[in-house]
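re: ur question from yesterday

yeah so i grabbed the chain u mentioned. its 346 aa long if i counted rite. heres the sequnce exactly as i have it in my notes:
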Amino acid sequence: MKRVLGLFALLSVSVSAYADIFAVFRYEDGRTNWQYIANTSASLLIIILLIVMGFLIRAHLRARRSNRALTEIKATLEERVAQRTQVLQETAEQLRKREAYIASIVNSMPVMLVGINDKLKVTQWNKTAEEFTGRPYADVVGENLWQAYPGITLTEEQVNDVLERGETLQLKHSQRGQYTYDITLYRLKHNDETGIVILISDVTKQVNAENKVAERDKLSALGELASAMAYDISRPIDAILQRVDRSRERLDSSDLGDVKTFLLREVDVVGQSARQANTIVQNLLDLSRGHRDVKQTAAIPDIVERSIELASKLLVDVDGLDFTDVDIRRDYGSDVPELACYPNEL
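ran it thru and got these structure tokens back, copy pasting raw so excuse formatting
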């Protein structure tokens, strides 16, 4: 198109070079050659149309190449978007599973887990904490620690000290014979967020078990000591009883008047005391021999009868009342079951 315009411009400039621009289209006699004009015009129009068509074809080819390139770019972008979307979905699913796994671990812990931020407000509250306090996570999140759990045995100074110093704090809170708790505080820092994790463990069963083991060890040592002492004490007691029996036989066969009655009474007191000591020694031996780490099945009425028998031998007042003089009325149920216990200790 530019060339055609340039041609017309060239013709307009060169008009002055001809006396008559249309002379070529006339005969020698001055008449106009219309056939020639028509052929020339048609040729020029055809040429112009061909040129325009060439430009149009060229533009069409360029448009097709551009469309093809855009289609390829679009397909590439769609593929990348699909890949990115898939990666994001997989990452989101992994994060969801990881969060669910961590939440499952936190909620499955047999200890109370309480998380607080640097403002001492609750951010984490596991299932054990919900069961122990009776308050769900939705009710306590965002509350002050002591509002959410008024019974916690921690002071604000202790918590702030852990926040400032970053050192782990371990405490033990117990009520003798009722419960024992281990409390652990440690600071948790992530980027610009700072908080504290509080772990409260109910170690009552563990402490009771340890106390029982210690008691059993003491009883075992006491049994060994009692056995050794019983064997050492039984010999002189047996000798005393023999001497008492001989002395009474001699006093019975002698004639000492009023002194005899006094001496017989004193000999009986010595013999009674020796027999009490012998009963104590025998009880110590039974205790040392009967000590076991495993409970035994025993009938409670039999244990009571054994205790009454021991009391009748031990609880004797030489100046008056004996245990045997006490009127004991027994009323055992016929359906009393046997129990697992330590009979000798009872």
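noticed a couple things. Residues 34-108 form the longest helix (75 residues). also The two ends are 124 Å apart (CA to CA).
anyway ttyl
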